[in-house]
Amino acid sequence: MNCLTFDQMMRYLDEELTTEEAAQIEEHLLGCPACRTELDRYRGDFMLLDQIGEAGVIAPPLNESFTLNVMAGISARVREAEKPVRNAAWRASRWQKAAIAAACLAIAIALGAYVSPTFADGLKSLFQWVQRDAGAKQAAKTGFAAPVYFTAEDQGIAVTVKEVLADPFRISVMYGVQRDGRTIPAESIEDGFLAPKGERNEVEVTDMSGNKIPFDFKTSRTGADSFFELFLLDPLQDGQFRSLSEIPDQVVFHMTLLKIDETKGSWSLSVPIDLRKAKSVSRSVAINRSYTTPEGVAIDVKQLRLGPSAAELYMDITETEAWSRRTAERFPAKRDMRAKYHQLYYRIKNDRGQVVAAWDGPSLKMLRLDGVNNYEKGIQIGANSMYRHVFLPFTDSKRLTLELKGLYTKEPANVSISVEPERLLQGPVSTAYEGKTIAVNRVRIKSDPSAEIIPLANTTATIEGPGVFIELESRLGPDVINFGPWRVVDGGGHELQSDDYVHLQKDEQGNYHSRTWIFVRGLQSIPERLELSCDTLEQRIPLHWEVPIDLNSR
Questions:
Q1: pLDDT confidence bin for 379, thresholds 50/70/90
Q2: Are strands 379-380 and 355-360 parallel, antiparallel or unpaired?
Q3: Could you tell me which of 398, 359, 418, 356 has the C-alpha nearest to residue 543?
Q4: Angstrom distance (rounded) from CA 319 to CA 384
Q5: Mean pLDDT, rounded, for 285-289
Q6: Whole-angstrom Cα distance, residue 175 to residue 157?
């Protein structure tokens, strides 16, 4: 599909397209930053113009020259908008509105337009049409998102905060970066957070008096848009949870940038955010139920927090002396990080017995359950053992049940396979280990430097550059979910640096099967012999423990 015309953009914004036509345009937008940037501009201008009178402003004193300059700018933009537009005569008012909105936008930014959730009531939010989770989309639809369009410019680069989703537990800030009017990737900002002190990009959250509020944050992006996800307040203070009332009614998000790509400069934005409406529909549910697994992992389910766009479950996970003894027997080396590894698998059911959320602890994305609420990897809070697991909001339920189903651990293994790649033409080379079967099916060279896509469950891996692929298939049973990482040595005894990519599936009988691509990057030819070895497996130990959660309690 070619880039969108002005008429197509206007019809899309006015909701005059058929469902099929709108779907085609949205598919194009996902892959075309230029059209998305242009549509963003029109959408923001129209929303701001429609609502500029309803958005509260914090107005500093203005001198007469400021007012005269702004009015002159409005007049110039309106005169420009009144010029004829090809094939869009009936939309002349749209151009005029865009011109006036752009001028009003300059006024709003100069005055410090205040972000209020009521500003977005009944409006189309950017969060509703970008690739965000269902919780963010629903919160935006019900009036918890607000267009902002605050911009800072320096060195020919403009950073714009476009919209804010106000949730006291998860504030989402949408922003974009442009160089000389062209969108550039957001990693140009993200890399600056790793710069030396004094040159480092920073974000912070304060109350209206400038007092800093502790928070965790992560970054993400979709198409031309990027996001800061801000999780306010470490929930523990002297071992006790803070209450929702301790989150201020109004906060300010500050972004201070000193480096974008390799360009040094100064970009500073401060965006006030009103949380009062979101706080009125948010709550915390105390749980405080504990369980210790037979292996010695202690689990204390503390609290569930419910906000407009997400639900947060807090768990304290610690290791007992029994666990320390167990791991010391399996991994005697004191600094062997495998000994510290443990992850949980649990499900959450509603009062009708339906699974409405699930957590599968290992970092393998293919373990996540298709179609089930499993929003985000957990965050360890500070230096303690408290974890935050974030899910989409739980709706239409008065009672939930958390079912702890399994514990993942690393265990020592001793697996080796000797392969002569030429003999694979006669069939796979396999070995058995404690009832599990691992087979090498193929060794092939990747001479094309362009990217190759590896299809993993629920995701993909992109492999670039030349090298050699070694393809394995494993039948693992119900307890072992993975072997690896694999060590690769050629016939001359030289260890080859490699990466593993695993596609994991589970059959109807509950047995795991995996395909593994081992990629030896940069290898120009296939060795006559390869020795593969693995000294670690990952297993899931079944557990059975239930935690009732009454959503009506506080």
A1: low
A2: unpaired
A3: 359
A4: 12
A5: 93
A6: 13
Q: Which fold has domain 283-410+543-550?
A: Immunoglobulin-like (2.60.40)
The H or E element spanning position 483 is strand 480-483
- In which residue are the tokens 């267009």 written? 147
Asked if residues 173 and 271 have their Cβ atoms less than 8 Å apart, the reply is: yes
Write the pLDDT tens digit of every residue in 238-277.
Answer: 667 788 888 999 999 999 998 887 888 999 999 999 999 9
**Cβ neighbour number for residue 444 with a 10 Å cutoff:** 12
Residue ranges, CATH 2.60.40, the chain: 115-281, 283-410+543-550
Q: Transcribe 172-233 into DSSP letters.
A: EEEEEEEETTEE--THHHHGGGGSPTTS--EEEEEETTS-B--EEEEEEEETTEEEEEEEES
- Residue 10 three-state SS: helix
Lowest mean pLDDT, pick from 368-382, 400-414, 436-450, 506-520: 368-382
Give the tens place of pLDDT for each residue, 136-165.
888 988 889 988 888 999 998 999 999 999
Neighbours of 277 (CB within 10 A): 18
pTM of the model: 0.69
CB 476 within 8 A of CB 456: no
- With both helix axes pointing from N to C terminus, report the angle between 33-51 and 19-31 in degrees, rounded to the nearest 10: 120
Give the pLDDT band of residue 533 (cuts 50, 70, 90): very high
- With tokens 């929930």, the residue in question is 235
Q: CA 265, CA 156: separation in Å to the nearest integer?
A: 10
List pLDDT tens digits, range 457-470.
Answer: 667 788 999 999 99
The separation between CA 459 and the C-alpha centre of its own chain, rounded to angstroms, equals: 14
Chain centroid to Cα 244, Å, comes to 24
Residue given tokens 């039948």 in the structure block: 475
Q: Residue 486: which pLDDT band, with cuts at 50, 70 and 90?
A: very high
CA distance 443 to 527: 10
Residues 6 or more apart whose Cβ sits within 8 Å of residue 6: 85, 88, 91
- List Cα–Cα distances, 238 to 193, 235, 285, 381, 514, in angstroms: 30, 10, 19, 14, 45
* Average pLDDT along the chain: 79
Q: What is the 3-state secondary structure (H, E, C) of 334-388?
A: CCCHHHHCEEEEEEEECCCCCEEEEEECCCCHHHCCCCCECCCCCEECCCCCEEE
Adjacent-strand bridge partners of 281: none
- Domain 115-281: state its class: mainly beta
The CA-to-CA distance between both ends of the chain, in Å, stands at 52
**CA–CA separation, 140 vs 534, rounded Å?**
48
Ramachandran category for residue 410: left, alpha or beta (phi over 0 → left; psi -120 to 50 → alpha): beta
